[in-house]
Amino acid sequence: MNDFTRNMPLAAFDPHSREFSCKYEKDSEPILDEQAEDWFREGMAVTSNDLWPDDRDYKRAASLWKKAAQKNHWKAMLNLAGLYLDGRGILRDTEQAVVLVEDAMKMGVPRAYELMGRYHMNGTGVQQNATRAYAFWALAANLGDAEAQAYLGGKLNATYDDANGSFWGNKSIALQMLRCSYAQENAEASLNLGVSLNVNGKYEDALNILHDGVRFGSKGSANYLAASFLIHTELTGQHVDQDRAERYKAIGDLLRLNPDLRLPNLDKVLPLPPAVLPYWDGDKQTLIDGAKPVKTASLDDIKPSPASLRQGRAHIPDGLVLPDEPQGGHLIQHLHTDAIISGFWLAQLAKPYTPKQVAWNAAQVPMYYALGESFTAPEDITKDDGVLRFHYLGTPIPKSLAERYVPDWRVPQGVLREVPVPSRELRSSGLLPAPATGIWHGTIDPAHSLSKVFNLWTRQAYVEEGQSFPDPRERGLDISPKDIQWQWLDQANQPLPSGRKDITIRNFDPADTAKNHP
């Protein structure tokens, strides 16, 4: 059966079609299993673009994403397919990559169809076929995939058809596709749409969309605006501004290094004219840290340790942890011997050969044995499994709240900042002017038809007191400001003695917070 596979029947791509119905990929993406999501996030953290290439652990990521893929986590499936293609952390296997993408296609994931289009264009694991590639991209775009919409929108955004078939003149549909993708905060669509509007004399709209492109992670938009502010151009109102150009250029440099970055709070560090720029210390990272999303954090967020939730021998009281090095040194004992010291011991097969044995070793947790207690064989281990050893891990020691605190997975990935809880709770309807300066996080009722599209962890904005909150309708989302609830997260820029405001960064520090924690 060829439905939803590499060989599925496809409608041919028609570059002169006059019909396009804007759909959003979030509406079609399957719900993710929570445990699989944890594995996916851990894999993202250990392969972050914020890490030096040699520090990225693709082998660990491959293992985590394999487990997540078994629970139908489509993001992990597509990431794992990428590892199979490149042979990073796993043996290269293009067939396995294609199979994973097919599995995601069967789940109805729009991005999977876009990826299958790329495979056909490049001949990756399938026979190279540009006609089928464009057909897959057209299907993906119609399903709501923002990448496919941006790509095809760019290809159709010409005034004539290229003789070699590399672009076509279908501006009406091109702009519809680009605006649909832009509404989904796609970086490439923002650049293409902004440049197109600039060329056609719609300067104010173009400037705002290119500025949004920087928020969405478009290095191209950042570099385009950097160049534009260095010359007299209609896009910037004939306004030469070297300071703004320098900041856009610096941001573009860091977006090139870490394409995972999103900068919704860009106006904290680089507002559009005529706003006065806040003082900047010249460090590129200050611009990124000020503009990236934030999340409030508190020591009260610390969850009970997994060991404290276990029963019997495996229970370790909350607030206690096993030491990095066991007291008295490393000890190993064998089955049916008596413990020569009280403490926690970890059972491990000496030579695990089969996948089942490897999995058994990985599933074991430390168990408490008192002095003189005998080490007995677990019920699921037989003589055929080989030698079983017990490794001494020590006795639990206290660990402070600050030491127990684990940051959000996106912090080590470099795409999120954790900040202290604001001194007061402040919320506002999107219809009202902002009652305070700072970073605001917006949400709509989960029952709203566009809640999956709007309710993102990056849905933030830096707004000055008295200014209007962002209106989603300006980006093409049919959401009334009255339906949006904005929550204040503080992080307002503070004035210097000169009166000029400074880019103020206040991060959550577990150690400092612990001093005042009851």
Automatic annotation (TrEMBL):
Residues covered by the DUF6396 domain: 236-284
Region (Disordered): 493-518
Xref: InterPro entries: DUF6396, Sel1-like, Sel1_AlgK, TPR-like_helical_dom_sf
Entry protein name: TPR repeat containing, SEL1 subfamily, protein
Organism: Herbaspirillum seropedicae (strain SmR1)
